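Fig. S4 source data, part A: sequence.
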Amino acid sequence: MRVLLSGRAATICSRPFNPSCAIGPLCFPSQPRRSITADEKPLPIADDQDPGPNQERLPHVSEEAAAMGKITGEGGPELDQGTPVQEILERDKDGQAKAPEVIKKSSTASSSPKGTRPYTTSARRRQEATIRFEDAAIETQGHRFGLPELPLPSTAHMKHRYDPVVHQVTNLLMKDGMLSVAQRNMAMILTHLRTASPPTVNPSRPLIPGAPPASHLPLNPILYLTLAIDSVAPLLRIRSQKGAAGGGVALQIPVPLGLRQRRRQAVQWILDAASKRRSRGSGRGGFALKVAEELIAVVEGRSGVWDRRGGVHKVGVSARANLSFGVRRR
């Protein structure tokens, strides 16, 4: 055989194929599989009277005991429902000696009528199934918890459970929306008012009429706080109105305040005076302590809030002639 390789012809000799040298697939000698048929070994056939090897079964223990009880006349267990423990122990003397004390007492002091079987589950279920609701007496117990008395108190609502003065002062103490910090400071203020010594009232700066004695104030810190705020709360505020009298001159016109407005102004004055106080130490309760001391100073007449209240009232009295300008302006 001639083949042209890179421009030159080459001769390739081929060998003849020898079939005896071919490699065949590996295999193992296998024998034919023998199958057992019914013709070679037939299965045993039982007679009509004799049962087969899998048909003869022993009776259950309860069935055997019931058959023996029927023969002897002693009465065996009932197959429809479970056998009570007491009946089993009656036939077993050794079991009676080893039985628990509860079962011994129940068997000796059993007062059940004849024909009933205690400690049976199926009979009890049957009895419960036969109960009719018409025969059962339905008792009306009423409400689980007693109804509240009407009219409801003012502190029954969750959002209004605190005293109005405490709630207003807490909101004024709050900064940056941190209500929990304000409530903690309010609790410290009330605690300091309750544990502090009774104040000494200044006769020249008396408290509001109807106030209790000073020695009773620490017993009720909320009343203590309310009395200090209402005593220095101004009755009016001064409003400047430009051009009321003509010529661009501003007039000072007194404007009366409501209860919440008066308390708000008083609390702001007290907080300003407390912030200017000197701190006694460090800690997160330092400002609350200064506010409590300022409240005590207000009750004793030593606070500068009294001077601010007196100045506002003095200006209001001198400017009461300008009320007519304010009414005419409206």
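Fig. S4 source data, part B ends here. The mean pLDDT is 79.
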